[in-house]
């Protein structure tokens, strides 16, 4: 009986050894991917609704680590102190040591357009559409092939309906919201349900509207699920609008958590601000001397800013015949 028992013990020890190796490899891969995320090179393996997630595959086992889950730890976040910006852009180190870029515009001196990027990069958009772009940046979250997750409307063209469904990831961290500009050149950021009642269902003529999430600032207050001490830090991009109709785009050039990022908008005077995307974000700014050839990350929705004298017509847009639909039918098709 001794030999069979020894054999069973050997099999058991060997099995424990394999489990140990598997756990060791998993931890090693997790550390590696975390470092990649912090270096801003991580891209979602699914779509941009969870750009701040990373996936570790162990045979058929898949562990998903959400970057924006609300966690507490003993690490305190220092208050942000922002310097006064130049007219359109500044990059500044804060006490938190987070370098940020801020791009500010007024609609009386600049025009804003929303482009269906269709998983094209900023360089492609810059070369394809006839505008003297001052700024280009990602304009909301998207599925594979660059299809917007939520509402995407540019003038009379609606690529995607208002999305009020539940789900997982940053986009669905409620409340989410909509950045919009009306035909009479009024800009705003609203929670999606408020936008539905006050703008969408009233068929207010829109110049553009893009839905994303979560909201960063809501009526001057932080999103209720943000944690000041969250250790989840990534590149962040967003947009806010002040009472004086100044549109403010901010991208963090270094990793920050959502609370810290939201505070930047509140300190800039935005009563409402919207998160656009995470680690994949980038912003081309001409005045900074950026080389558009370096902007090769692919996006769905893209926001462009150009001088007031320029314009963009529907004839200049990249066609997406399979999913374009008239905004006249939006009330019949929006998801409830």
Descriptive labels:
336 residues; alpha+beta; 7-stranded antiparallel beta sheet; 20% helix
Shape: elongated
Taking the alpha carbons of the first and last residues, their distance comes to 68 Å
User: Ranges with pLDDT <50 over ≥5 residues?
Assistant: 32-96, 313-336
Overall pLDDT confidence: 75
- The strand order across the widest sheet is 3-4-15-14-16-12-13
Please write the string of helix (H) and strand (E) elements: HEEEEEHEEEEEHEEEEEHEEEEH
Question: Main β-sheet, in a few words?
Answer: 7 strands, antiparallel
User: β content, as a range?
Assistant: 25-35%
What's the alpha carbon Rg, rounded to whole Å? 22 Å
Helix content: 10-25%
Structural class: alpha+beta
Description:
It is elongated and about 85 Å long. The protein contains five helices and 19 strands. The strands form four sheets. The protein has a seven-stranded antiparallel β-sheet, covered by helices on one side. Strands 10-9-11-7-8-19 form a six-stranded antiparallel β-sheet. Strands 5-18-6-17 form a four-stranded antiparallel β-sheet. It is of the alpha+beta class and 336 residues long. The longest helix is centred in the N-terminal third of the chain and has 37 residues, at 2-38. The N and C termini lie far apart (68 Å). Helices cover 20% and strands 32% of the residues. The chain has helices at residues 2-38, 122-128, 192-200, 258-267, 330-333, and strands at residues 53-58, 61-66, 89-92, 100-106, 110-121, 135-138, 152-154, 157-160, 177-182, 187-191, 206-212, 215-218, 221-222, 237-242, 246-252, 270-277, 283-285, 298-307, 325-326.
């Amino acid at each position: 009986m001794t030999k069979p028992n020894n054999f069973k013990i050997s099999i058991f020890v060997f099995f424990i050894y394999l489990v140990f190796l598997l756990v060791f490899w998993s931890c090693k891969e997790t550390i590696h991917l975390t470092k990649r995320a912090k270096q801003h090179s991580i891209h979602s393996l699914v779509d941009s609704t969870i750009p701040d997630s990373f996936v570790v595959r162990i045979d058929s086992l898949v562990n998903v680590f959400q970057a924006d889950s609300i966690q507490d730890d003993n690490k305190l976040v220092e208050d942000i102190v922002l310097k006064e910006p130049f007219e359109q852009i500044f990059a500044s180190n804060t006490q938190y040591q987070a370098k940020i870029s801020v791009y500010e515009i007024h609609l009386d001196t600049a025009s804003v357009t929303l482009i269906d990027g269709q998983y094209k990069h900023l360089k492609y958009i810059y070369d394809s559409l006839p505008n003297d772009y001052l700024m280009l940046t990602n304009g909301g979250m998207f599925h594979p092939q660059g299809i917007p997750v939520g509402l995407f409307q540019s003038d009379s063209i609606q690529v995607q309906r208002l999305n009020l469904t539940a789900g997982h990831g940053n986009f669905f961290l409620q409340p989410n919201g909509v950045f919009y500009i009306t035909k009479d050149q009024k800009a705003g950021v609203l929670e999606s349900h408020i936008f539905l009642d006050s703008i969408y269902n009233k068929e207010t003529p829109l110049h553009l509207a893009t839905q994303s999430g979560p909201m960063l600032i809501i009526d001057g207050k932080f999103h209720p699920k943000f944690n000041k001490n969250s250790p989840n830090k990534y590149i962040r991009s967003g947009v806010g609008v002040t009472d004086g109709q100044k549109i403010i785009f901010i991208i963090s050039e270094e990793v920050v958590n959502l609370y810290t990022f939201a505070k930047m908008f509140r300190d800039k005077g935005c009563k409402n601000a919207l998160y656009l995307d995470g680690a994949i974000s980038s912003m081309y700014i001409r005045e900074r001397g950026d080389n558009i050839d370096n902007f090769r990350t692919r996006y769905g929705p893209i926001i462009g800013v150009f001088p007031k004298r320029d314009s963009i017509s529907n004839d200049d847009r990249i066609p997406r015949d399979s999913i374009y639909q008239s905004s006249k039918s939006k009330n019949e098709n929006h998801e409830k």
